[in-house]
Amino acid sequence: MKYVTLNNGVQMPMLGLGTWDLRGEEGKQAIINALDVGYRLIDTAKMYGNEDIVGQAIVESSIPRSEIFITTKLNSSCLGYSQAKKGIEQSLKELQTNYIDLLLIHEPYAKSLDMYKAMKEAYQQKKVRAIGISNFQGQHYDYFIQNCGMIPAVHQIESHVYHSQLKFKQRMEKDGVQMESWASFTEGRKDIFHEPLLMEIANKYHKSVAQIALAYLIQNGIVVIPKTIHKERMIENMDVFDIVLSQDDMYRIQTLDLGQSLFHWYD
Prior knowledge:
Blueprint: E1 3-5, E2 11-13, E3 17-18, H1 24-37, E4 41-43, H2 51-61, E5 69-74, H3 81-94, E6 102-105, H4 112-124, E7 131-134, H5 138-147, E8 154-158, H6 166-175, E9 178-182, H7 196-205, H8 209-219, E10 223-224, H9 231-238, H10 247-254
Parallel strand pairs: 3-4, 4-5, 5-6, 6-7, 7-8, 8-9, 9-10
Antiparallel strand pairs: 1-2
Helix pairs in contact: 1-2, 1-9, 3-4, 7-8
């Protein structure tokens, strides 16, 4: 596993498990399987309604809590300072832990700065090791950075070979913010696994298309959290850190970039 160092010195794994639609016993077992094959970053959110199975999976894995990096996100149920404080306590309870490694605001809300105030307090109280945002674009991002009082450690946004957002990443780097990708495989919006160029490059490196798609993001310094319930895919996704794409191949993959979102999240 490779790690990135966040702007407050915290070490974050560069690859983790996204859990957005994992539910029930099957979902819990998928998380346990991921931890078993070596995943150490688990990404959840209040919006997903599965913090409880994430917490239980970590308990049942018997892996020391200190070795696991848990991310969760506050949503519209936590609008405002007081509600965010309550939301953080609820997440700690659901996750069966006394601290969260990374806490994000799931999307821009009118009361995001009030929510962030509660997050900063939780950070100072060591209930949270790092705080950040998700899905802030354009003026929402600019306004937040100018007024938040504590630069986010991480910004999680849509990023994949068809919309890598590398230019935006350059802006984040100037601000000291680590970029993290969601939808690394486009969540079915594009048939990435049969993309001819990626298939050609995958054959060249004796890897899968999925591995090349992840390696491209990781080599650009982007944290990835692909979701899968299949253990063999988890093993495959973990086996990417020996890939070093040539500058030419990195450029060729960049030509796939459409320069626009495949989702309507930012409309």
